[in-house]
Amino acid sequence: MELPKFLFYAPYNPYNKVTNDAGENLSLVINLSLAQNVKSRNLLFFLYRLELFYRICGRPCLVDIGGVPNLVPLVKRDVYYDLSHLSNWLDMKEGLAIGAGAGPWKYVGVNSELIANFAFGSGTIEKSMSYIAKLDPETEKPIVETLPPGENNCAVLLNLLCSEGKPGKVIKVECKNRKGGLNFVSCMRNAMWKRFPCKFLGLGGVFVIKKGKAKLHIMPDFSEKPLNSDEEVASWLKFVEASSPLTCLSVFVTSDADMDLRVEHTHCFSSYGEGGHYHYDTTPEEVAYEGYFVLGETMYRVDRPTETHQIGRD
């Protein structure tokens, strides 16, 4: 398809009005929220301590490409994206992209979960360490594998954190022993939304589930029957329980900002062949998280669906 027309959205610079006290404000807000949801937490924010986490800093921005309406009720197979164009969409000569989306079915052969992790240049993907999680069409056994060099596509939807790929100041969050009902990402996102209800904020980054297990899903091949409700989507998905350690790539925002954004999206993988879309941990007494995040300076909305709904957004 042609290069998507996109809406450039920067309602404010998040470092302006939340700025000099941004770390203090977010530290207090998320810390109080985590206190209600976990038994132990340790937050080190960038105004107080410099944490060097390679390659997620430098003009960080969030990117929402396509959307769930391209997947359900029925898939739009013509919605297919060549990610080598990413630098042009962002006006960024080179950088790093991490996030969660739908895999390139033309290459994989079936629908799949994309765990995106690649370095991009001007009109090219320079290096990729992306994974896909799929179901074997015959056995329904989960399969996690890396995408080969040169496979630069994704289908229907993708949420990314992009940056110049530099070391820099990040937000570090450590917590363990969940006691509340929210998952790790939702706890932070809800805390920011409640404290700053009139502001659009978004974080992206990576976290590791160091101990415990997590509930994930893997999409089967595209449904030939329309999926018209969350219940029908849930019945279609294949849910699995994965063991730690799991590396999770995550993007989340406080609201859809009237742009039909996906407010949170996280995909995980492991070195021993497990992965998929993160829902929550299943061992609250045992679980331990460690995450590194950056606050997005800009939100890009790429190829927003013309018709939308709220089905299948979990």
TrEMBL record:
CDD domains: DUF1907. One of its GO terms (molecular function) is zinc ion binding. The keyword Ribonucleoprotein does not apply. Residues 29-302 form the DUF1907 domain. Pfam families: DUF1907. It is found in: Nucleus. One of its GO terms (cellular component) is nucleus. It comes from the Eukaryota. Keywords: Hydrolase, Metal-binding, Nucleus, Zinc. InterPro entries: C11orf54_DUF1907. Monomer. This is DUF1907 domain-containing protein. It comes from Artemia franciscana.
